[in-house]
Design goal:
The structure holds two protein chains of two kinds. By secondary structure, chain A is an alpha+beta fold. Chain A has four domains: 85 residues, Arc Repressor Mutant, subunit A (Orthogonal Bundle); 55 residues, no CATH class; 89 residues, SH3 type barrels (Roll); 70 residues, no CATH class. Chain A contains twelve helices and twelve strands. In chain A, the strands form three sheets. Chain A has a five-stranded antiparallel β-sheet with strand order 7-6-5-4-8. By secondary structure, chain B is of the alpha+beta class. Chain B folds into four domains: 68 residues; 46 residues; 74 residues, SH3 type barrels, CATH 2.30.30; 75 residues, Alpha-Beta Plaits (2-Layer Sandwich). In chain B, strand 2 and strand 3 form a beta hairpin. The longest helix of chain B has 17 residues. Chain B starts with 6 loop residues before the first helix and ends in a 7-residue tail after the last helix. The chains are: A alpha+beta, B alpha+beta. Strand 5 of chain A pairs parallel with strand 4 of chain B, so a sheet runs across the interface.
């Protein structure tokens, strides 16, 4: 943004904060320096109109509450003003331990979108007189997000309550399918981001992992297109995206090996090398078992055996199938 | 964060900021806004040109400078900062709610008080925070033990399961820092056994005892810079090139890669690892959705492992 435009925007805010009456575009043009002066030509009129439209959009974008309306019935067009109480941050003061909590909270975000927003919030709190220089006594480096590209679009659609469309990749390698949802919210669980909402194509609540989006999600249609259910538990929706299962898988382990599978499964009472684990998601358990190679062999159920065999066959073919496998990087 | 996009919000916050910090040093103000002193001076000279309609001498914002200190003498009505935007409110509120759900970390009561005040100041914008939820494993007793050990400066003894090597070991470590990355808590500590700084994931610490001896990491070791990721590969590590088919593309987002290139059939990624066992397990766990292109021996090893495993199933080699 040019210095001239930044200066004009600050002057515009000062002007609209100072007025109690709505000012017409023409009055603003005369009061705020930097707008194309009126020389009677259509060109100058057009240039001013475009400039003013862009400035209004910019101010709304950064959260300035521009009001439009008419001061009296004799006004023949809408005017603009900024109500001081809608503009100003209400008084706030934080005790030292509260300020430390806010300072730590702002450091939780890592992605540009949220870290930038947290930083912006701190600037405003400091400008309101809050002292945020307190340090937490314990060395902590917490981070909640790692920057999922689809996050911004999903979050915006959920807060504006707009329909969201995207292509979703199933983990089994099939082609992505087009989805349309009413997004209720975004959820981070175990380091993964999800969007949860009502799937319009399948007429049921569903949760989707953002890392499986193919391409960018798109918000379509007007804001306020749906109501978010009052009592919905988004975390529970994401947790049950892997539905509970009655099936118990049995996996035979090489003695002394596959510690990782032993940790999550339960050894069978009369055989410490046969572990049993509930089968929540066929594909993800097949992936895990395959990663242990000869150390882990599925005994039950047959579907899991098949899924592992298919994976092993693909892996076994890797060295021959790759004509281009080279010896230099 | 691009400097130009944030400039107007910063300009609007500056005048109220200077009023509650009278005669502040320009460099301190610049540090609070995350800009250089020169950038802040440019902001101040711009604001000096701004003011109420009329723009006569009594209408313009007035600043007084004294050496490297600055004060506001006329604010042209800019007495308070702008309200929080939706994103700003959400960023703080969701993070505070997450801290509130993580006992043992910082004083819970202070978090609740701070949360209530921020929610009140954010007003209607606070409602948008309902659209974002972060679930982390907050009920971890190990977190409380480690936080206490860090505060008291105690060494700890732990039994640790290492997923990379699929093995369980016992060690005495000198705690340095607690980290929360991608939903998992880690302890960064000097490991006396390995004589190096190591990251321990809390949910893989099986037994944990704070010892009656002081934590003494060597004076020359510093916490690692994790801005590029938790596990930074070193130049001596083995370089591995992998093609990721479409449904394994997520791997490029979750592990640090030296290069990521789109080719017709998927993503071509290069990564480094000190443990080829780890890469073998990663690729095998992708079940054919990732092809090792280099080193060739690694590709052959993985294929050979798979053939041996298939023999255990009495299944054909396929192809």
């Amino acid at each position: 943004m040019s210095t001239r435009r930044a200066e004009r925007l600050v002057n515009l805010v000062i002007c609209l904060l100072a007025t109690r009456h709505y000012l017409s575009a023409e009055q603003i043009r005369r009061a705020v320096p930097g707008y194309e002066p009126d020389d009677g030509t259509d060109r100058a009129k057009e240039a001013f109109k475009r400039m003013f439209e862009r400035d209004k959009a910019e101010l709304r974008e950064i959260g300035v509450p521009l009001e439009t309306g008419r001061t009296s019935a004799f006004d023949d067009e809408d005017g603009y003003r900024i109500a001081r109480d809608a503009y100003e941050l209400p008084p706030i003061s934080l005790a030292a331990d509260e300020a430390a909590a806010v300072g730590l909270a702002a450091r939780l975000w890592h992605s540009a979108a949220l870290a930038g927003a947290a930083e912006g919030a701190l600037h405003k709190l400091r400008a309101a007189g809050v002292s945020l220089d307190e340090h937490v006594a314990v060395p902590l480096e917490p981070r909640l997000d790692s920057g999922e590209p689809a996050f911004g679009a999903c979050f915006a659609a959920a807060t504006e309550r707009r329909e969201l469309r995207f292509d979703y990749q199933r983990p089994d390698g099939s082609d992505p399918t087009a989805r349309r949802i009413h997004p209720w919210g975004v959820v981070a669980r175990r380091g993964r981001w999800y969007v949860a909402g009502y799937d319009l194509g399948r007429s049921a609540p569903r949760a989707f992992r953002l890392s499986r989006f193919a391409g960018r999600p798109k918000a379509v249609g007007p804001a306020g297109a749906f109501e978010r259910p009052q009592d919905v538990d988004l975390v529970a929706m994401v947790a049950s995206a892997t539905p509970a299962s009655e099936v118990i898988a049995q996996i035979r382990l090489r003695p002394g090996a596959a510690e990782g599978l032993r940790r999550t499964g339960k050894a069978s009472p009369d055989d410490p090398d046969l572990i049993e684990t509930p089968l929540y998601d066929l594909h993800s358990l097949a992936d895990r078992v395959t990663s242990y190679g000869t150390d882990a062999v599925v005994e039950e159920p047959p579907a899991l055996r098949e899924a592992v065999i298919v994976r092993l066959q693909r892996l076994a073919a890797m060295s021959e199938a790759q004509g281009e496998v080279g010896s230099t990087p | 964060m691009s400097a130009s996009a944030d400039r107007v919000p910063r300009l609007l916050a500056l005048i109220p900021y200077l009023q509650v910090h009278p005669d502040i040093e320009i460099s301190s103000a610049a540090a609070d806004f995350g800009v250089s002193p020169d950038e802040l001076r440019e902001d101040l000279s711009l604001l000096w040109m701004c003011g109420l309609p009329g723009h006569g001498p009594g209408d313009l914002i007035d600043l007084s400078f004294d050496d490297d200190h600055v004060a506001v003498t006329f604010d042209a009505g800019m007495s308070r900062p702008l309200r929080l935007t939706t994103h700003e409110a959400v960023a703080l509120i969701v993070a505070l709610r997450t801290l509130a759900a993580t006992p043992g970390l910082i004083e819970q009561e202070a978090v609740s008080r701070a949360l209530a005040k921020i929610e009140e100041a954010a007003g209607a914008q606070a409602q948008a925070a309902a659209a974002v939820t972060v679930a982390i494993d907050g009920q971890d007793a190990r977190l409380v033990v480690l936080r206490r050990a860090l505060t008291a400066g105690q060494a700890v003894q732990l039994t640790y399961y290492s997923a990379g090597r699929d093995a369980r070991t016992e060690r005495v470590v000198d705690p340095m820092r607690l980290l929360l990355v991608d939903g998992h808590w880690y302890l960064e500590a000097w490991c006396r056994r390995a004589e190096g700084v190591r990251m321990f994931r809390l949910d893989r610490i099986e037994e944990l005892v704070a010892l009656d001896e002081p934590s003494r990491p060597p004076p020359d070791v510093a916490p690692r810079d994790i801005s590029g990721g938790l596990f930074l590969p070193s130049a001596e590590d083995v370089q591995v090139r992998i093609r990721l088919l479409p449904w394994a593309r997520w791997v490029a987002d979750y592990y640090p890669c030296e290069s990521v290139v789109e080719d017709g059939e998927g993503l071509l990624v290069t990564l480094r690892s000190s443990e080829t066992t780890w890469v073998r397990r990663l690729v095998a766990g992708l079940g054919g959705a990732a092809l090792v292109l280099y080193p060739r021996e690694l590709a052959e090893q993985i294929a050979e492992d798979a053939r041996m495993a298939l023999a255990a199933y009495d299944a054909p080699m396929g192809g």
